[in-house]
Every structure is written in structure tokens, then in C-alpha cells.
Amino acid sequence: MSDAAIARMRWPFDPVLLYKALFLAVVAAFVAVPLLATVLGGFKSLGELRTNPFGLPQIWEWQNYAGILFSGRYWQLLWNSLVISSFTVVLTLIIASMAAFAFAHLHFFGSSLLLSYLTMGLLFPAATAILPLFIKVRDLGLLDSYFGVILPQVAFSLAMSVLLLRRFFKDLPHELLEAALVDGCSYIGFFRHITLPLSGPILATVGTIAFVQSWNSYLLPLVMLNSDALYPWPLGIMVYQGEFSAEWHLILAFITLTLLPTVLLFIFAQKYIVAGLTAGAVKG
Amino acid sequence: MSGRGDAIVIRGRPFHGPAAKSRRSDGRLTTALIFLPPALLLFTIFVVMPIGEAAWFSGFNWNGFGRPTRWIGLDNYRFVFDSRGFGIAFRNNLLIIAVSLLIQLPLALALALTLAERFRGAVLLRMLFFLPYVLAEVATGLIFSFIYDGDYGLLASIFRSFGAEAPHLLASTQTSMLAILIVIVWKYFGFHMMLFIAALQSMDPNLVEAARIDGASRWQVLRHVVIPLLYPTIRLSVFFAVIGSLQLFDLVMPLTRGGPADSSNTMVSFLYNNGISRMRVGFGSAIGVILFVICVTFAVTYKRWFMRDE
Q: Which of A23, A109, A129, B173 is least crowded, fewest Cβ atoms below 10 Å from its Cβ?
């Protein structure tokens, strides 16, 4: 309180505050102008976009957006992305939390070795082995199917997820496990009825990371999928851009609409998203 | 840790010892046998085996059909290192790392120092600056390919309003990489800023106050108290900047696809353009192996040298 009061008293005399405000304004414009121009551009006609790319549209061309919203194509893309991301999140959570539980509570011969084996996955990106991965998915008969994308995505998100979950499981009060075991509860029962219900925050964090990565991913679906009908939205906007190459007003409207779910999710779940994406990085 | 539980070490032998104990040790073994295989199998099949196979395939001249038969030893690596495109891609990756470290990190740090204080709008600005990190690379790339567009783009209209001729940044070998670097800063500085803000907020405010009371100037406090306390976060941030730069791909495709004339390829987009889209499995695998070696060498040495205590 008093700090703020002093700062306010000093305000007219302190040039540092002015520099700070200026600095923030410049960066805010750097970030916001491209985004605003994209949203507004979708409301303009192509001719107006050329003469007036920055300002508000003189005539609001709602049909750019309406045309896309009423086309099956847009919803198909979002649906495909939703299917792929949801399966990726659910599978990642189930498989990673099971493994993390085993690493946290079942100390058996070789468990630390197996854990270091899994965390090797943090050292290199999926792109390094993308060609053999393509051949593997092809040989498994999963090419051009949702699962050809989902399974590799789950596999690559395991290392980070297991690390985060294991740390959380280990930090839960140890007396819980001992008491449950004495009362005759099995490890699996303990995992289902005690560990998981207590792990809401970390499951949300891991789920958020997996979802955002899967929702935005481009390289894996690009390599694994051939038919437009299965494309998730990042592939879909590239195809759309290819078709309407110079009709920027339509492309901008399409980009805006495909980004809308991400932005809405970000606004409503920003706590989890910021915590997830930064904490995931710090603790991994 | 758990006195009684740990006494039993599992090495098979399900029906051994007193009934109660054996039920508990069984329980562990069975649980481990149910809980671990899904993760280990998926990881082995889709992460570890492909890396091993990349090393194996890189010895062949193979188009991906049938079995690899034409063994050519290390020739693929020679082709990679001899190709002009790979040299450019490698240099571009170094350039991205340099910009990430010399421009993006200081910017993120300066913003974090400004926004870690509480004032009206600080949280909103933090969210605005973090937003680009959440948006898909492909969409970001398309937005900026509009901004850079020589006919309709924002940049072109700025140039025209000064009566200058609009540049086609993405279409020139001289400027394509510059254009991509600007987008990289736009997209990723918010992530590093958030790392720094989290670190600043967990910092003991008494330290700064004590230094101020002892008569240190604002700059001295920053230089000798705050920044040293941020070193662990800075080291972490550098690590992510480098690893992220090495795998950059999604952003390049909508902007330039690596062109013109390979001028804006990264190692991964070079791998995509020359290995995957032409199904030159051996050549592409060799690039993958090189990238793998670079990533792992960097990660291991960096962790050993700079992040020993974390």
C-alpha cells in the first residue's frame, strides 16, 4: 500500500515510470497489432484490405465469417483436432499416471533404471526420427488414421508427463499409503480411490500440456495423414491458404475462426495453461 | 521410507513367506506388471526404436518401399555434409539460437522485471504477452505471411504510406531469414517472460528492500541482487531457447517452406523438404541422426556444466 502511495506521489517526477509505460506500450502494440489486424481483416473486402489494412472496416463484411461458419469444412477440421487431442490427453493421463505411480511407490529392482530410460525422451524432439516413425506407423497399418497420430503423440509426451506426475505422487503424504495398505487396500485400489482423486491439479496441468501440444501439432499429422477428411485444423488452414492463395480476407477470417477455440480456452483456463506450460518446463 | 513395505524386495517369487507379507509383495509385482508395460511399450515402439532405426536406415540408399537393401555405409552423411542446403540450415539454426539468446531473453527479462510489480493492467499485459506462445505455430506463420505480403500486408502499407516501394521480405534470399526471426521473437518471448515472472515472484522481497535500505541504487540492486538470484532461471531459459531453436519447423512452413533457394531452411525443414517429401529415407535418417546427436550432446553437456544442482 505505502509503496504504491509513494509511487503515486512521486509519479510526476519519476521518468523511470514513463519509460516503463512507453516500453510496455511498444511491446503491447508489437504483440496486439498483428492479431487485431487478422481479426479485423476477416471483416473487410479484399479491396479494402489493400487500402485500409490497419483500421476498422468501413463496411463490415459478415459473410466472410458466416460463409466459413456455415461450411462443413471448418467444423470437420475442429472435430478432427478435437478427436485427436482428446484421445491424446486421455491416453497420456491414463498411461503416464499408471507408470508414474509405479515409479513413485513400487520400489522394485531396476525401477530407477527404467525411469531414466523413459526420461531419455526429454532430450530430443520427435522430428529427429520422423522418417523411421513414418515407416513404423505404415508397417503397423495405422497410416492415415487418427491413431497413427495419437499413439506417437502420447509416446512423445510420456517422458515429461511421468516426471511431473511422479513428483506429485511422491509428495502426497506417505501415511496415506501405509494406512491404506494396513487396512487391506491393494496398490491398484489405492491408486484409483486415493491417489487419483487427490491429484486433480497435476492431472489438469499434464492434461493441459498434452492438449495444447496436440491441438497445435503440425509435423506428425502432416507426415501420417493423407486424406483431407482426417486433417486437424493446422493442416486444414494450410490447405485453405493454398486454395485461396491471394484472397487474404477469407484466409484471415479462417485463421481467426480456427484460433478462436484456443483463445477461448486460454481466457477461461489461463491459470492452468500458464501454470502448466511454465511449470512443466521448469520441473521437467 | 515406509518401514514395513520396503523390507520386501520384489524379485519374482509370488508365493513365498507369511501370507500377509506375500500378499503385499505380490500386490506390488502385479501392480508394476500392469502399470508399467503400456508406457514402456509405447515409448519403446514410437520413440526409442525409430531412433535406432534411423541410425540403421541412414546406411542405405532406400526409397522406403520393400526392405532396405542398397547398403552405402556412411555415404549419406557425406551427402548431407556436402550439400549446400544443410550448411545453410545449420547456420540458420545457429542464427535462431543467437537471436533467442541476445534479443529475446533480454527482452523477456526486462518485461518480467516491469510486470512482476503489482499495478493495474499488469496481469492483463502478462496474458497478452503470453498469448502468442499458446497459438499454433502454423497459424502464427500464416498471420505473419499476411503481414509481410508485398501487396496486401501491413508492412507493405506502411512502406507505401511513406511513398516507398513495398518489400517482399519472404521472397528474397537476403531477408527471408530476418522475417522469420522477427516472428520467432514475437511468438516465444512471452514464455520466457513468464518463467522470469514466476522466479521473481518467489523471490524474497526482503533482500531487495535490505539492499535499498543500505543505500544501493535501483541499478545496483538489479545488477547485484536480483539478476544473480535469477541465474538458475536464466540458465533454464537458455536451455529451452536452444532446444526449441533446434527443432523449429512449424513456423517455417507457412512463411517460406525453407525458401527461396533454401535460404530459410532450419535443419528440421531441410529434413522435411529433402528426406520426407521425396522419401529419401537414408538421407533423411542421416539428418535425423545428426540432429539427434546435436540435441543430446547439447542437453547432456549443458545439464552437466550449468545445471548441476537443479
A: A109
**Long-range own/partner contacts, residues B245-249 (CB < 8 A, 24 or more apart):** B245/B93, B245/B96, B245/B97, B245/B100, B245/B184, B246/A125, B246/B93, B246/B97, B246/B291, B246/B294, B246/B295, B246/B298, B247/A125, B247/A127, B247/B291, B247/B295, B248/B93, B248/B96, B248/B184, B249/A127, B249/A218, B249/A219
Quick one: which of A11, A16, A13 has its CA closest to B222? A16
Question: Looking at residue B60, what DSSP letter applies?
Answer: B
Q: How many residues does chain B have?
A: 310
Q: What residues of chain A, 72 to 101, have a C-beta less than 8 Å from chain B?
A: 94-96, 98-99, 101
User: Tens digit of pLDDT for each residue in A163-220?
Assistant: 999 999 998 888 888 888 888 888 888 999 999 999 998 898 899 889 999 999 999 9
Q: Which residues have a Cβ under 8 Å from the Cβ of B234 and sit 6 or more positions away?
A: B105, B109, B227
CA distances in angstroms from A18 to A11, A14, A23, A208, B222, listed in the order given: 9, 7, 9, 38, 19
Note the pLDDT of residue A268. Answer: 85
Question: Which of A28, A159, A273 is opposite residue B125, by nearest beta carbon?
Answer: A28
CA distance B79 to A10: 66
What is the mean pLDDT of the segment spanning A81-87?
97
Of the residues A35, A103, A128, A178, the best mutation for testing chain B's interface (the one with the most B CB atoms within 10 Å of its CB) is: A128
The predicted complex's ipTM stands at: 0.89
